[in-house]
Amino acid sequence: MSRRTLFRTAGAAALAGALLSQGGPSFAAGGLQELIDRRRQVLTGGRSAADIPELAGQLEGMGATTEKWWSSMDKAPVRTSLWSDLPPAGIGQSATATNNLGLHFNRLYDMALGYSVAGTPYAGNPQLAEDIVAALKLLNDTAYKPGMRAAGNWWFWEIGVPRKSVDILTLLHAEVPETLRTSLLAAVRWFAPNPNWRGRATSLAETGANRVDKSLACCMRGILDNNTDEIALGRDALSDTVRGGTNSVFTYVTSGDGFYTDGSFVQHTYLPYAGTYGVVALAGIAEIIAMLGGSDWAIKDPKQSVLLDAVESTYAPFVWDGRIMDTVRGRAVSRQREPDYVSGFGLISAVLLLAPGCEEPHRSRFLALAKGWLERCADQKLVGHPTQSLAKSLLSLAVLTNASVTAAPAPVYSRMFADQDRLVHHRPQWGCTVNLSSKRIGRYEWGNSENNLGWYQGDGMTFLYTRQDPAQFSAHFWPTVDPYALPGTTVNDQVRASGAGGAGTGIPRAYQAFAGGLTVDGRWGVVGMDHLNHNKSLSGRKSWFFLDDAVVCLGSGITGTGGALVQTTIENRSFAVGSVPALRTDSRNRVMAPGDAPVRLKRSLHIEGHGGYVFLDAPGVSGSPDVAVIRRTGSWYDINSGADTGGSAEPATRDFVTVTHRHGTDPVDSGYAYMVLPAATHDATFSQSANPAVKVLANSADVQLIAADEDALVLANFFAAGGASGYTASGPCTLATRQSNGKLTVSVADPSRTQSSVRITLPGSWTTTVQSDDGAVLVGVSTIEVQLDGHGHQKNLTLGT
Asked: Whole-structure pTM over 0.70, yes or no?
């Protein structure tokens, strides 16, 4: 098969192109079988992959999964459960039974795929189909039927089981008797009657990904039940027509869940979630478009561009070579089966499914982005990956083998997302982002026994990605890292309780308002956080300055109470057991191993193959950091014991290079100052150590300020009214100035969102305004007045002499 032929015919890619063309067919009520066929092809890939070598392993794996669940299933005529490890326990009427119910449907779906996907060992096996149908009847008779009480986690009843039910009925549409199909769809309808609302009432409106999931299930149950009103109901729920678009997924929001104009995506009200819930929303909408495109129920919302633009503005900035950065993945970081690259593969598949039906420039851009992500994900391959469906593998293979698509290069920019307290910084060989938290954005999410030890993820955790180490956060990092020593965080040693076994979910928010920052020319950036820990026993001011070759990190005003030891973790880099690289501490080469005594650092540290660290002279800094190699063992089950996402209890072990600045017991106004040089050589590290390219001008509880690039670039966080080195601010703000060609560009934002305006005084004299955003005015030769927008977004002003 030639590459060109493969691209034209490979399963879902060809399907999507045909379905989403402008001249696509229109279907009346009697033509719903075509929509069922479309959905089936999106689930299965629409063709046999037996002749594609890259997919042989995936087909074998699907067959093995089908055999595992089928062979272990209880097939006795009289039974109360389908698998011995999933006892009924009052099936359907307790939290445990609800969890087991979800797992029952998951396994039946896996078996239905094994039956339906051409090329698997069990494709078309009549006995398999018969046993799946009998199992569905048992569940419908005893566990999932109208009139039952929804115990435990609502998600299983209203989203998880309905989605799996309609997909199983789609895959086995010809095999499931109509009476059973009708009865099972009645149960789906009972527990989630209207995708606009949670449960059977109309008191809680669904938002974001949950709304999309329910919309897709509603559309499918309408198609399967020959109920065209429900197809329209599911489609219109995406636009929230019942509330005039209040919770439309195609409308920008200014608070709560959804897409923001600055590219942010929030779910569960308080957490950046583009990497999981956001991907679910995008994928679900892509699947609905693929299913309904060209029919009488096609989505016609004129605001669909909000979703299409989000691919570039919301998702792409947080993709590192096919991986979605953990900073926007919430509690999913604790899921063993969903590492960063699996979330990335989900995004890529959704983008590829969307692309064929888009007009230019979206179509070409989507294909180029997807191909670039796939090609740069060097250590993992979506095509044939066991976590992916055959349809997704076919989509990816199609774009990879299409010579007419040119892969988009890796981005090089700095972008601020004020509405989710995140900045992402991409350089040619590395990328970096920081988890900030505030009164608006939560520290982390836990619940349903997921992310049990995630306490400090939002307290400044700093994610550093390099191409030398793409699997840093996916190779057993989360179950083995010390949860009290996440890179970039300042914490005390007070013992925290695991979230395992806790009911519901929670997103603890921070107490302070200041979190965020700005970017300069899309090239440099600065963020800061006024940090007050979970029980108010530790406080401090923290800043990160993102430069061309470095990230400068300052801490000040670090004060603790309660008799606890306080430390800032500069780095906690994970390596396979026995593979810690050579270290150079100041001027000495070292080979360190677990158990060796920590080494005190004076000016610099270099980690071979990773980068360097330079410790800066700065006000308020006392003591010096140390480096150690620590071997840690944990399990995925420790951090996630959830019903359907829980990890393995098998121990995992990693070696960590840990760099720590210890502030002592109950410190008062302690601080730190260091520069991270990602992907730098030892020579570059040594040179920066001898003559740093940045100068710390202030590091107090009120002001943190640096000058870089021969003083042409000045970056600062003012946590309160104050001044340093000729720069003053009337209140809390982030400030950046850059002087070039006789002009001064000034950028100001208020991450605290507590002021309507701020007045800035600058050194030097400036007599003219060359260009300015609305509300940014030069009011004196060295003073500007900036009217703030209340959302933390920056204002820019260019001045001349």
From this structure: yes
